[in-house]
Amino acid sequence: MAAGRIIPIRALAAAPEASRQRLRRWSQAAFFAFFVLAPVFDVLRYDLPAGHAWLLGFEWHAGLDDLLCVSKVAALGAVGRIFGRVILPVFALGGLLMWAAWRWGRLYCGWLCPHFWVVELINECMRRAGGRPTLWEPRPLPLQRADGRPIVPDRRWWLAAALLAVGCALVWAVVTLTYVLPPAQVYGDLLAGRPSRGEGIFIAVFTGLLALEFFFARHLFCRFACSVGVFQSLAWMANRAALVVGFRRERGAECAACDSACDHACPMRLRPRNIKRAMFTCTQCGLCVAACETTQRDNPRGPLLHWANGAAARDNEAAFRAPRFERNKL
Hints:
Blueprint: H1 10-13, H2 17-37, E1 44-47, E2 52-55, E3 58-60, H3 75-104, H4 107-111, H5 114-130, H6 156-178, H7 183-191, H8 197-216, H9 218-225, H10 227-237, E4 244-247, H11 261-265, H12 287-295, E5 305-308, H13 311-319, H14 324-329
């Protein structure tokens, strides 16, 4: 397989997968802290009572109030104000996200998204409870990890999974409310035990719905219902040279010594040793690569899964277009 150029994200290209996973955990924790604290410090939120947004500690007005008084602003100026203050920033942020996805895949999902962090946590609890990382897994996974450590099923982990789903949903509900109401008001009312009727209804309904989603359909939401994730996947699929998990198919026979550890490690329940279009919802979390590195640690030829981009990514796709009789030999 031809070597690709150096991956721009050096953390993905240079370090062993264990180090990349530590970096990913820290990035998830940092972004979750940002998600919780951004409204508190007026970094990013919309204040419904005041009728304006906050951005980086400053009040941000779209200037729409002046449109109610035609004497204050001309029609052309009004259109320019809406475009410059609302439409352009939104499209700029969306364009940046799509460019990153086109080049590197769903990095936001696997490395930053607070929802995906919850997916991984509850998957782990459920696997410890009954051997299945999700309720919809057709059969239990092997009772050992990629490094050989045993997993002893314990039904008490079902309680941990349920509490985690409800607890994370509650945190999400409260934090989401602070994005549209003053955080001091929301947290003050909760600490005093007297949230307003509207706050109470929102928190209760949002917590209930999200807890059900976390417990029953979290990875399915990421795969089929999250518009941010789907658009990233579409951008990624449009670039044949984008970062991808590659598989050294010429060494496929060496997988016989492994009990599909890469498949079992995937939080999205995908099969990493597959063509790119079958990995449409891959979040680039790298857990499959880490599992392969672990199971093949004594193999002098190294792991079979690896990060590939550029020419290496195109070669990885070309390998799947080989004649059927050649593929069956691998």
